[in-house]
Amino acid sequence: KALYRPLTKWNEVIDRAECLDLLRSDQGQRWQTSQPLKVEDYLARLPDLATDPDDAARRLDELELELRAGLHRGTTDHPALKAVVFTARAYDLPADAFRRFFASMRADLTVTRYRDYEELSGYMDGSAAVIGELMLPILEPVDPAAAWDGARGLGSAFQPTNFLRDVGDDLDRGRLYSPQHHLGAPGVAPR
Fold it and tell me: How do residues 108-158 score in pLDDT, each as one tens digit?
């Protein structure tokens, strides 16, 4: 017996070419990135791509408002949100998960340090654990309640890897995701 059912309607709702055009236009003079973005990275990478934090904050606000409106209407014309709205409605994804996600994306624009792991965990709830929560209904596990902690844990487990991968870029942006109390350990010094 299969544990999961494949999602088959994705390509019926998203115009990949339109979304890629949006990403290409956003990677112009106002955006910085060293690698091409995938459609799936658009929302999560927005705070890192903007050269102007006020512009990134405005765009995050606009995206969140459009997502909320799209969830209410059942549709959106925004190419990066079409599949998100379709999937969220098809699988009854919790709106609170999107709110927490956007809160963490906003934190990337203003928070540069985390005092301890507990404070960092609050950020990771919206940047990582929430992704596991959103994926769980889509994957349709046989026992969603039994899979809940594992889905959140898997999302959170990826986050430290992302921190390590991006440490140079984050330091260049003035951010450091290592909890400050770790930096006092022998042999550890931020550059």
Answer: 888 999 999 999 999 999 999 998 898 888 888 889 999 999 999 988 988
pLDDT of residue 10: 44
pLDDT at residue 172, rounded to an integer: 86
What backbone torsions phi and psi does residue 113 show, to the nearest 5 degrees? -145, 155
Coil, strand or helix at 4: coil
Q: How many helices (H) and strands (E) does the chain have?
A: 10, 0
C-alpha 65/C-alpha 57 separation (Å) is 12
Q: Decide if 65 contacts 83 (C-beta within 8 A).
A: no
Spell out the residues 6+ positions from residue 153 whose beta carbon is closer than 8 angstroms to its own.
Answer: 129, 132
**Residue 51: count of CB within 10 angstroms of its CB:** 10
Task: Please name the amino acid found at residue 78.
Answer: H
Token pair of 41, please?
A: 């990275």
Neighbours of 128 (CB within 10 A): 23
Report the b/e string of 136-173 with b at 16+ CB within 10 A. Answer: bbbbebeeeeebeeebbebbbeebeeebeeebeebeee
